[in-house]
Design brief:
- This protein is an alpha+beta fold.
- It has one domain: Heat Shock Protein 90 (2-Layer Sandwich).
- Helix content is 31%, strand content 27%.
- The chain has four helices and five strands.
- It has a five-stranded antiparallel β-sheet with strand order 1-2-3-5-4, covered by helices on one side.
- It starts with 9 loop residues before the first strand and ends in a 10-residue tail after the last strand.
- 26% of the residues are buried.
């Protein structure tokens, strides 16, 4: 079997934020500054910023329960044409696994058959090229990946 050489991820930035509502704006601004000029079109950068903000809000609220003393960890890496942002909290099993979540349905939400909330993962998944979720003990991480070249839907959404 032939092994395909994969580039070693290059860490572009890593930081923590207190789990305080509003800090998602700090996360999106810092990530945007880090990846600016690294091959994402303006439209794709805006999509990444939206996904980072939503994932950070989820980590603050659902993962860490708005407990300021528990930080949200953010890391930005680049591997080949992929920029990946990982956002980690200490929510562990408190987060629903991606596949366990009912897909949002606007009509059901308007009729009261679904909670008006629950758009987060759906929105994130549709903003980035790839989304993965891992849980290791209490550590819950969402991985957001955007390709810098060759993306078929570069300017859509």
């Amino acid at each position: 079997m032939t092994q395909v050489a994969r580039p070693t991820p290059e860490r572009l930035d890593a930081f923590t934020l207190p789990s305080q509502p509003g800090n998602e704006r700090l996360a999106l601004a810092r990530v945007a500054g880090t990846v600016q000029g690294r091959g994402l079109s303006d439209a794709r950068l805006e999509r990444l910023k939206t996904a980072v903000a939503e994932a950070t809000m989820n980590a603050i609220e659902h993962g860490n329960g708005n407990r300021v003393e528990i930080p949200v960890e953010v890391e930005v890496t680049r591997s080949g044409n992929d920029i990946t942002v990982s956002i980690s909290d200490q929510g562990g099993e408190a987060h629903p696994v991606d596949g366990d979540h009912e897909e949002p349905d606007l009509v059901k939400k308007l009729d009261g058959d679904q909670s008006p909330r629950g758009w987060g993962l759906f929105l994130i998944r549709n903003m980035v090229d790839a989304m993965d979720i891992t849980t290791d003990g209490q550590r819950h991480t969402i991985w957001l990946t955007m390709r810098t070249t060759g993306a078929a839907h570069d300017e859509h959404v």
